Amino acid sequence: MWQLIAVTLVLLAVLVSVFRYSLPYANDYKHDLEVLINEQFDVDLRIGSITASWEGVGPALVLENVTFDDNNNSPIRLRIDNTSLQINVIESLRFLQLRSDYFVLEGFAADVDLNALDISTQQSDTEFEQQALIESLFLGESGHFAIKNSSLNLTMRNGKEHTLLLEDVIWQNNVLAHRGTGVVGIPGLTEGQLSADLLLTGKTLAELAGEVYFQASQVDLQDWLSPYLDENKQDLHTDINGQMWLSLAHGKVKNIQLNMKPSHIHWQQNDQAQQLSLMQAKGLMLPSESGWSLQSSEINFTRNNLAYTDISIVAELAERQSVWFKGLDLPLISEFIQLTNLPNTDLIAELAPEGALQGKLEFQAKAAPKVWLYSDKLKWQYARGIPATEPMRLEMNAIGEQAVIELSAQQGQLHTADMFAKPIAYEQLVGRFDIYKFNDHWRVTSDSIWLDNEDLTLAAEMQLRLLEHPELDLYVEVKGGNGKIAKNYFPQTLMAESLINYLNDAIKAGQHLGSQVLLSGKLADFPYIDKTGRFEVLSELTQAEFAFAPEWPAVKEAAATLHFVNERMDIYVDEGKLINHLSMAAYK
């Protein structure tokens, strides 16, 4: 008996010695190892090269550039740049299989096409070699290994691609469960940390169940966002924190939960620290018949500790994606816009819009996106000739590059700064505007602008062409009013001060029959002294009392026409009384 044991030990020592001294020639046995792996795992692969050395009590192998013959036909394509493993000689001889206590996969890449992959069945005709290898590797009853500098690339059912970087993950199998923990990443994120913790059960992908947990800690999105950010915002960076859970059952995702922790955007402005924060947000995604449904709650933003209205979102994410939202504050939208390099952000800041939006967004492949927005308390401040408003109702419907905006308000005022002598009151204000793209530029048109107050009624139509130098065509008709209130409606920024003073002194009384206003040309060239555009006002008065000059007697009961063309004014008096005598006609 002892002799048998001694002989066995000697033979084992000889085998180990032979194996040890043959390690430098391991690459010569590359084909044999490929055959061995095929017999053990039923996988056809190609090994680029093998290097080997003796470490501790056993040999260590390094396999480089491992590819799989079935990659072109499989929904799972695998590549391995480098895998190093230490052979357990005793266990390998005992089970007559290649056994390793621990190995490292580096440069491991798995490209998974979810459109072609069907893990809902275990029929052999739906399995691929790569799937069998993954199940043996990750879902076996034993195994302890590391994954470094690797990636999981998913092609979703809608054709979009997403990549998860496996930077440093440790995987451990046992008969009860499979556990993976470590650091993961997303391309383009260089600051902060994303960690993962997986606890799974099941021997095949179709049986997979358990929980997948991700945590983001102090993640900076600045590299992602930099192409869209305002360069004048100094030291801008983000601090994103949150958690996500994926629950799995029968090889499919059962639900996804999202819990955002306080996250911030920091920047410097006028040498002062600024901060826009997402204080919390929760969301739950559930599978539906055609895709996924999303419901959120408690989405709360603050700006330098000033809280905005909570936002809620409900979405259906399928072939046709629909998103409903409410409680979206316009000042919050304005804050985000100020951080971007979009055009006219300074104008939006000056307007300082207020109010909350609700709306619906729809997206579908090969179809123009649809947008519906609504607010019943929209207002903004005066800026660059745009009157300030009191709360009004807004509704917008847009399809692709065409939109219709409807505005309406009652019992308020338009605050025009220095344009008119006092705010323009209205009992009713209505406007409908069409926005569309034409020959690579945007146009805003309307044939339905209406204002009514106790003095007068105004109707207007317009077209604004947003070229490099914007052009405006505007036509306005005004009815009602009298001479005593005329001074309140002279556009002080469009008319010369001397002309306004003259008219205020000259018009003593009278009824306003109507006025027509025409403006056409480049806005920058107004008042069109060089005749590149046209500004014209034609007003009809009756029973007017008009003093042409201080030393002249006033014309009374006159029928008069005032005609402004650019900077020229003509006054026509068709009839009237001058010192109690009938005057036939006059012209000034």
Describe this structure in words.
The protein has 588 residues and is mainly beta. The protein contains 8 helices and 30 strands. It has helices spanning 2-21, 30-41, 89-95, 129-138, 222-225, 330-338, 345-351, 497-506, and strands spanning 45-55, 58-68, 76-87, 100-113, 143-155, 161-173, 178-185, 191-201, 209-220, 234-249, 252-269, 272-287, 292-303, 306-307, 312-317, 320-329, 356-364, 370-378, 392-399, 402-414, 424-438, 441-452, 457-466, 471-479, 507-522, 534-546, 555-565, 568-578, 581-583, 586-587. The chain has a 30-stranded mixed sheet that branches. Helix 6 packs antiparallel against helix 7. The protein is elongated and about 125 Å long. The N and C termini lie far apart (138 Å). The model is unreliable at 1-22, 121-126 and 581-588 (pLDDT under 50).
Number of strands: 30
Beta content? over 45%
Q: Briefly note the structural class of the backbone.
A: mainly beta
For the CA atoms, what is the radius of gyration? 39 Å
Number of helices: 8
Largest sheet: 30 strands, mixed
Give the N-terminus to C-terminus distance in angstroms: 138 Å
Mean pLDDT: 82
Shape: elongated
- Low-pLDDT segments: 1-22, 121-126, 581-588
Helix content: 10-25%
In short:
With 588 residues, the protein is mainly beta.
Record keyword descriptors for this entry.
single chain, mainly beta
